[in-house]
Amino acid sequence: MEHLEQHERLEMWEKIQKALFDEQIDKFRAEFLELHPYDQAKIFEEQDEDIRFIIYSYLSPEEMADVIEQVDEDLVEAFITEMVPAFAAKVLEQMSTDDAVDILNELDKNKVASFLTIMDKKSSEEIKELLHYEEKTAGSIMTTEFVVIHTQMTVKEAMRHLRKEAPSAETIYYIYVVDSFKKLVGVISLRDLIIAEGEWLIQDVMSERVVSVPVGEDQEDIAQMMRDYDFLALPVVDFQDHLLGIITVDDIMDVMDEEASDDYSKLAGISDVESSSDTAISSAKKRLPWLIALLFLGMLTASIITRFEAALEEVAILAAFIPLIAGMAGNTGTQALAVAVRSISTGELEKKGKIKVIWRETKTGLITGFCCGIIIILLISLVYNQFFLGIIVGISLMATLLIATISGAFVPMMMDRFNIDPAVASGPFITTLNDLISIFIYFGLATAFMSFLV
Amino acid sequence: MEHLEQHERLEMWEKIQKALFDEQIDKFRAEFLELHPYDQAKIFEEQDEDIRFIIYSYLSPEEMADVIEQVDEDLVEAFITEMVPAFAAKVLEQMSTDDAVDILNELDKNKVASFLTIMDKKSSEEIKELLHYEEKTAGSIMTTEFVVIHTQMTVKEAMRHLRKEAPSAETIYYIYVVDSFKKLVGVISLRDLIIAEGEWLIQDVMSERVVSVPVGEDQEDIAQMMRDYDFLALPVVDFQDHLLGIITVDDIMDVMDEEASDDYSKLAGISDVESSSDTAISSAKKRLPWLIALLFLGMLTASIITRFEAALEEVAILAAFIPLIAGMAGNTGTQALAVAVRSISTGELEKKGKIKVIWRETKTGLITGFCCGIIIILLISLVYNQFFLGIIVGISLMATLLIATISGAFVPMMMDRFNIDPAVASGPFITTLNDLISIFIYFGLATAFMSFLV
To answer: What is the rounded distance in angstroms from the CA atom of residue A96 to the CA atom of residue A115?
Structure first.
C-alpha cells in the first residue's frame, strides 16, 4: 500500500460512509480504524460538521487522538473547539504531550484553563509544564513521554521496564540513563541493549558520551544537529543536566519543513508563511507590508530620475534601458543574497570566513558584470546602431552587477552580525535597493558623457 | 556534550595533534575515536594533506569509513582519490552501501571499475546493483543492509536472527517480513517484537498493512510520505513487490535539506545549488545562464519603451516611475509565485483546485493593487503636485499588480500541468516578464491620456 492518492481516499470514504449512514458502528469502526492515522485524518478533514459529530460519537477519545495528531495544524483548533468539552479534554489527554501543547498554545487562555481542569491530573500537569516554554525552542517541541532507566539496573531489568513502558513512550529506540540525582549520565540504544548480556549492569554497557540540548535551544539548530549526527532522538536537559524530555526525529522533520517554508517565503517577500487555505484578505495582509515599503523606496528612485530630467529630455532613449539595468541589478543581488542566507543558516559561512566569501562574490560580480556588459554593448551597437549608448549602458551594467553582487552578500551578513534573522533581508528589499543604486550609476554616467550621446 | 563548536573542535584537535606529532598511535586513536564520527569528520576535513596521510595509516578502513560517511559531499571525492587504492576500496567496502554508491557516482568510470575489482565480491555486487538506479529515486537512496525475517519464524527465532544481524544492519527498528517468494508481506516494529510472546509466529504478530515505495519513486515524494506517516524507515520494492532495500529517516533528512536548498536557489534564479566552497568562476557559471536570458528579455522591454519615445520626449517625468511600476510588478509576481510553487510541491494545490487558487490570487491582486494604487496617487499628487500623473501611475499600478499576481500563480501551474518542475519558473523570470507587461500598460495608458499630462 502506498501513500493514498486523493481518489483512493474518496473510494475508501464511500465504503466507510455507507456504514455511517446505515448506522453500522461496528462496520464503520472496522473499516476506518484499519487505515493509517494520516489517511484517517485526511478523510476526516474533508467531512462536514454533521458527519464529524457522528464520527466523534463512534470513536473513543484515544482513537480520536490518533486522528487529531495528524490533522492539518490550521484546522485542528476548530475541531477541538467544536467537540463536547469533556470529550475534547479526553482527546487531548490521550495525545502525545507535545502535540497537545501545540494545540493548546493556539487556543485562548480561558479555554485552555477549562480543559486543564477537566483533564486527569497527571496529564494536565505534564501539559502545564510544557506550556511555559517559548515557541520554537527545544522545550516547546519535546515530549515528556520517554523511557528512563538507572545506572544500577541490569540489562534484564531494563528490558522488563522497557516492555512495560513501551506502549506509552514516544520512542523506545534510545533509552536514557540517569543517576540517583536524576541527572542525565548516559544513553543506550535498544539495538545495543538487545545484544547485551542479561546480567550486565547498565552503567557498564551504556555510552557516557550522550549528546543533549538545553531546553532553550533554537529548534533550527536542533534540526541541524540531528541531521549531522543522524540521531533518532535527542534528550533535553536544564542547566544542571536534569533530563526534562526528548525530541524525536518525526518532530524534527516537521521543523525542517517549517523552517524551509519560512526561508522560502521570506526570500519572496512574504512576511508570514502563506498557504492555499488563506483567504484573499489574509494573503493580501501578509504581502502588503513589503509592497508598501517598496512603494516608498520606489518613490525615492523616482526622485533620483527626476533630478536627471534634463538628460532625459535631451536623450529620451536613455529611459529605454532603465528596466534592463535595474532588473539585472535586482536579479543578481537576489542570487548573491540567496547564497549568503543559505551559507549563514548552514554555518558554512562561519567556517569559510566572511572576508573570503565577500572576496569570492566580488570576483563573481566582476565576471558576470564583464560578460553581461560586453553582450549589451554588442547588442545595442547592432540593434540601435549607437555605439556610445552601448558603452554607457555596458559600463553601467558592469558597475551595477559588481555592486549588486557584493551588497547581496554583505547585507545579510551585517544583519546576522547584529543578530537580525538574515532571511528578513528578503529578495524584494535587495532588489529595490539595487534598483536605486543602479539608476544612480546609469544616469550619473550618462550625464557625465552626455556630449557623446547627442 | 553538545554539538561541538568550531573552537571546541580546535582545542580537541590540539590535544590530538600532539599525540600525532609524537607518533603516539595509541594515544591518538584513543582521543580521536572517542569523538562522534561527525566531529571526527569535521576535524579531518580541516587537515592538510600530510596530516591526512598520517591519519589514513593510523586508522583501520572500518574506522576511516565512519569518518568518510560524515565528510562534506563536496570534499569526499578528493579524499577517496588521494588514498592508496587498496585502502580506499576497503574503506568503501566498510561504508553503508548507499553512501558508498553516492561517492562512486561522483568518480569517473575507470576508477569505479578498478575499486570494484579490488573490493570483496559481496560488497562489490551490492554496490553494482545500486549503481544502476537513477539519481534522486528510491533506488539511489536506499540501502541493502536491512534485516528480513520470514512469516513462519517464531518471535524468539526472529529476535535471535536480529541479534546476529544488528551490527551490520542500517536499522533494526523496523523488521520487514517476506513470504517464501521473497515478496514483502508485512512489517513489525522492534517495539512490538519485544512485547510479543516468544513462541508466537511472526505472521500472527506482524502488521500486514506495510507501506512501501516502488524503486523508481521520486525522493521528494518519499520525503513527504515519511514526514506524513512518521516512519523511521520505508521498504523499497520492485513491480512484483520483491523487497529490494530500505530507506532510513537519516537519509530522508538529507533529501529534505537538499530539496529545500534546491527550491530556494531556483526562486533566486541560480541554476544549480551553490555553496560557499564554490570558486568565483563556478559561481558565475551557475548564475550567468539566467542573467544572460534576462538580458535579452530586458532588450525586449527596451524596445517597447523606444516605441513610446514620442511620449517620453513630451513628458520626460514619465520615465521616473518606470522602476517603481516594474519593480512592484516583479515583487508581487514573486510573492504569488512562491505561494504557488509551495502549494504545488506540498500537494495542497491539488486539494484546493486550481480555479479556486487563481480566483483567490485574483482577489488578492485586486486588494493589493487597490491599496498601492491609492497610496501612489496621493504621494504623486502631494510630492509632485501632479494629480493626473498620479492617476495614470496609480491605475497602471493597479492593473500591473493584478496581472502580475495572477501570472505569478498561473505560470508555475501551467508548468506543472506540462510536467516541468514549477520551481524552474523562478523569481527572476517572473520578475522580468512582469517588467515587460507593466511597462506596456504604463506607456499605453500614458499615451492614451497624453492630453491631460502636457
So the answer is: 16
Confidence of residue A170 (pLDDT cuts 50, 70, 90): confident
Q: Chain A closest CA to B400's CA: distance in Å?
A: 13
**Per-residue pLDDT reduced to its tens digit, A344-383:** 777 777 777 888 888 888 998 999 999 999 999 999 999 8
CB B188 within 8 A of CB B235: no
The complex scores an ipTM of: 0.72
Cβ–Cβ under 8 Å, residues B274 and A339: yes
CB B415, CB B421: distance < 8 Å: yes
Percent of chain A whose pLDDT exceeds 70? 95
Determine the Cα–Cα distance for residues B36 and B70; give it in Å rounded to an integer: 10
Q: What's the grid cell of residue A308? A: 536627471
To the nearest whole percent, how much of chain B has pLDDT over 90?
19
Give CA separation, A151 vs A164, A205, A206, in Å: 18, 10, 8
The pLDDT, as a whole number, for residue B2 is 43
- And the C-alpha cell for B448? 492614451
Query: How many residue contacts between A and B have a Cβ separation below 8 Å?
Result: 393
Rg (CA), chain B: 30
CA distances from A274 to A104, A284, A288, B339 (A): 22, 10, 13, 6
pLDDT of residue A2: 43
Determine how many CB atoms are found less than 10 A away from the CB of residue B454: 8
For residue range B391-419, list pLDDT tens digits in order.
999 999 999 999 999 988 888 888 888 87
Would you say residue A277 has pLDDT above 70? no
Out of B305, B361, B427, name the one closest to residue A268 (CB).
B427
Give the three-class secondary structure for A34. coil
Which of the residue ranges A57-66, A211-220, A254-263 would you say has the lowest mean pLDDT? A254-263
Taking residues A323-329, report their average pLDDT.
87
The residue of chain B nearest to residue A312, with distances taken between CA atoms, is: B316
Å between B257 CA and nearest CA of chain A: 8
Q: Which pLDDT belongs to residue A113?
A: 82
Helix A354-383 vs helix A387-417: angle between axes, to the nearest 10 degrees? 160
Identify the three-state secondary structure at position A72. Answer: coil
B166 CB neighbours in chain A (<8 A) are: 191, 194-195
Q: Using only C-alpha atoms, what is the Rg of chain A?
A: 30
Compute the distance between CA of residue A430 and CA of residue A332 in angstroms, rounded to an integer. 10
A404 or A18: which carries more pLDDT confidence? A404
Domains and CATH numbers, chain B: 6-137 (1.25.60.10), 148-260 (3.10.580.10), 280-453 (1.10.357.20)
Which position has the grid cell 579490488? B118
- Contacts B316 to A, Cβ<8 Å: 309, 312-313, 316, 319
Which positions in chain A touch B317 (Cβ < 8 Å)? 306, 309
Mean pLDDT lowest among B90-104, B148-162, B288-302: B288-302
The most distant pair of C-alpha atoms in chain B lies apart, rounded to whole Å, by 97
The confidence score (pLDDT) of residue B291 equals 80
The residue-averaged pLDDT of B422-429 equals 66
Closest-CA residue to B447 (of B305, B298, B299): B305
- DSSP letter assigned to residue A424: G
